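Action item from last meeting closed. Structure (191 res):
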């Protein structure tokens, strides 16, 4: 089983929601977004596999997976990965843990629904910062691929509502002023 190395351009779709998926991608570098009905649900970065969300052979892809920035990936045939996993005792454990991780993502998303609007948005921004942020002095900055449009979509807001909410967060000191590298710079005092 020799994977193919592939470079993927920003905004290129790796897998389309509702279609059969026969490939598995290992992200060597970059960030991908998982969309359902054109809304971002989650994100993943380097050192993660994408394409094993469904591990049945003829199952359809539950999400559209899109590159948020230039990617370097290793491409495997799903059948070969599953054959290897099923042949190993630890393979079943891996699939169990993968399923458990998917369940935890869903539970986290559901828990956000019980928070009030501003609290929910702050909590979701802080989770993004924990997972993808880069320390930048007195802030944790999200990578450039997390622009206003992307984050507003992820938070489930209209563009105008998002714009006014981000201005409010800046006045409160939750968000620090943007710079050329990042629009979202979360004040470290919030962690």
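Sequence:
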């Amino acid at each position: 089983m020799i994977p193919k190395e592939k470079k993927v351009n920003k905004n290129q779709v790796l897998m389309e929601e509702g279609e059969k998926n026969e490939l598995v991608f290992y992200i060597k570098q970059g960030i991908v977004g998982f969309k359902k009905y054109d809304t971002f649900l989650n994100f993943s970065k380097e050192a993660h596999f994408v394409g094993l969300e469904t591990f049945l052979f003829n199952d359809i892809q539950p999400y559209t997976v899109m590159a948020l920035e230039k990617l370097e990936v290793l491409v495997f045939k799903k059948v070969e990965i599953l054959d290897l996993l099923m042949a190993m005792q630890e393979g079943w454990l891996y699939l169990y843990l993968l399923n458990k991780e998917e369940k935890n993502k869903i539970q986290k998303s559901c828990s956000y629904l019980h928070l009030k609007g501003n609290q929910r948005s702050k909590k979701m921004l802080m989770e993004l910062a924990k997972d993808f942020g880069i320390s930048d002095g007195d802030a944790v900055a999200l990578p450039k691929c997390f622009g206003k449009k992307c984050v507003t979509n992820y938070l489930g807001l209209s563009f105008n509502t998002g714009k006014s909410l981000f201005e409010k967060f800046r006045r409160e000191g939750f968000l620090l002023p943007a710079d050329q590298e990042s629009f979202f710079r979360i004040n470290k005092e919030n962690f």
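Note appended to the action item: The chain has five helices and twelve strands.
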